[in-house]
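seq as requested:
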Amino acid sequence: MKKALLITRVSGFIPQFEMNDVKILQEMGYEVHYAANFHEVVYGKDNSRLEGTGIIQHQIDFYRLPSPGNLHKAYKQLKKLMLKGDFDLIHCHMPMSAAVARVAANKVRRMTGKNVPVLYTAHGFHFYTGAPLKNWIFYPIEKHLARYTDRLILINNEDYKRACDKFKVRGSVERIMGIGMDLKKLEKTIEEEKMSDFDIHEKYNIDKKNAVIVSVGELTHRKNNIVMLRAMKELLDLDITYVICGKGPMEEELKKEAKELGVEDHVRFAGYVFNVYDILSQADCFVFPSLQEGLPVAVMEAMAMGLPVIATDIRGIRDLIKHSKGGYLVNDFEPENYAVKIRRMFTDEYRKSKKDRALRRKEMGEWNKKRIKKFSLEIVDKKMRQIYESVDKQM
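struct tokens:
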């Protein structure tokens, strides 16, 4: 049986985002192996979602903040695994683990003479237009590692164009439309939500008259929730509650900030939620003030649920949201400008009634539902099958 090795830095990434790739590989006759740090689960609470999938797990000691010693240790572990496993295909994700994996795979290729295809899906390069100068240290690294990469797979227009123009990839550069939204499954979920007794106002003790805006994501500096908290200070005259879905290292800092700003009564920290579609189905607007993205799944889910979106005008997000069509894009990270866009979404001197404003939000949500069809699972599935089949033939 052919064997494929998937590699990510942390556990949870594959069951959260890449199970469709696993399905494709298994249907093509591959035994799927997964190398990651299974002691660090970022997506989900544990590794239970891997049970019953047929995926064989291998512990690699990747670290969040790697030192040269830690990187070398992970490199040696991966090289040993690749030599012992005799894999026929390697597909890596996440920048650090992908870098170590490609160096290890190149070494094994030279040692064994076996030409094993190496794929890397970059879910958003660290370097991008407008990125801090320190982020560009990764540019020469990725440019160099491209020569060890048989398929460099990008998920947004900016990264794809830069790779095509600047990198000399051993194989080819490919563009896919993210991880693929299972719109058929989502339609079924929406119908189930209509039968659910979930009430977001009751669940989070929100006044019934209040509109609800929601964000979803890990509570980190990158997701930039603090901007929304500061924007809420400008919106205390409106009947709006902000629900933050997610856990992360900045949770306590954000709670402290909300209290110091005097907005804690207008903000709810929902923690990690498994019923995200319950929440999205009853929200009035989705907000996403992220500093950096590849092609954000959270925004795609909100669009598929028919929500208008207010988000930062950055790479990845502008691939999804069109300003004034599916919501509003904010071209900087100033809290006041987020507040202006939210106020525009819920109040407008040219709109005479609340009904008119609700209609505008509905129209934006409907535009997003049509737009997201371009990012459907069927389209991504077809492209990934073509990529896997193309490397399968070269073996």
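The chain has 15 helices and 13 strands.
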